[in-house]
Amino acid sequence: MESLAEVYQEKLRNNNIQSSMTEGYDCYQNALAERINGIVKQELQKLIEQTVEIYNTKRPHLSLNYKTPNFIHNKNAELLKALH
């Protein structure tokens, strides 16, 4: 019986794709790749947070009459407080 990993590797070879997985099951062989992936994920998370911050606090929206989402949210919160 052929294992799933062997089928996978054969598909890669048939499509001229080189596997980046290491053989020998040594987790330390991928340490550099894992480190780079970690750095990229951290930087991407920072970029997403900055983008959301700009979108919500600095970028006016036509659909909000050129106000920011945070401005509208805060005004709605003030109106709700005034009603109570």
Automatic annotation (TrEMBL):
Gene3D superfamilies: Ribonuclease H-like superfamily/Ribonuclease H. This is Integrase catalytic domain-containing protein. It holds the Pfam family rve_3. GO terms for molecular function: nucleic acid binding. Residues 16-69 form the Integrase catalytic domain. InterPro entries: Integrase_cat-core, RNaseH-like_sf, RNaseH_sf, Transposase_IS3/IS150/IS904. The lineage of its organism: Bacteria, Pseudomonadati, Bacteroidota, Flavobacteriia, Flavobacteriales. GO terms for biological process: DNA integration.
